[in-house]
Amino acid sequence: MSTEQVVNRKPVLMRCRACSVMSRVDLSRVAHGPKCAKCGAPLPLNTPQSVTDADFQRILEGASIPVLVDFYADWCGPCKAMAPTLDAFSAANVGRALVLKLDTDANPLTASRFGIRSIPTLVSFLGGKEWRRHVGAANMPILDGLVR
């Protein structure tokens, strides 16, 4: 591996939807279609990744690119209305931003840790630290502003 390849690496951790094992993915090689290290299932990078209290911090700290987290709940109307925009943002930013979704009802520890009192709340992280925050439904320009 050349020095340029090492410098240009953009690693992130992802949980396989098929076997639940965490795999390290190099986003600089996203065109090669990353697969799970254990079962070989494709790891889709064009849709938001669900995270839990158990894996949130590990995924956040393992990201070398901006991370946008959607704190939501399944019963939340504005969260559901915003989901297609978040999906489109995720697809348009493969390799430039990692989009995560955290269900605040199922994962109260992380939601509490970040003081989530209203949903949807979108928080962007850079270098594992909170960078920007938006409360309420967001359109594409707001999402772009959170990670740029």
* Sheet with the most strands, sense and barrel status: 5 strands, mixed
Proportion of residues in helical segments: 25-40%
Distance between the termini: 30 Å
Mean pLDDT: 90
Protein architecture, described:
The chain has 148 residues and is α/β, with parallel strands linked by helices. The chain contains five helices and seven strands. The strands form two sheets. It has a five-stranded mixed beta sheet with strand order 3-5-4-6-7. Strands 1-2 form a two-stranded antiparallel ribbon. Helix 3 links the parallel strand 4 and strand 5. The radius of gyration is 15 Å and the shape is globular.
In short:
By secondary structure, the protein is of the alpha/beta class. The chain has 5 helices and 7 strands; from the N terminus they run αβββαβαβαββα.
Topology:
Layout: H1 3-7, E1 11-15, E2 22-26, E3 49-51, H2 56-61, E4 67-72, H3 77-92, E5 98-103, H4 108-113, E6 121-126, E7 129-135, H5 140-147
Parallel strand pairs: 3-5, 4-5
Antiparallel strand pairs: 1-2, 4-6, 6-7
Structural descriptors:
148 residues, five-stranded mixed sheet, two-stranded antiparallel sheet, 5 helices, 7 strands, 28% helix, disordered N terminus
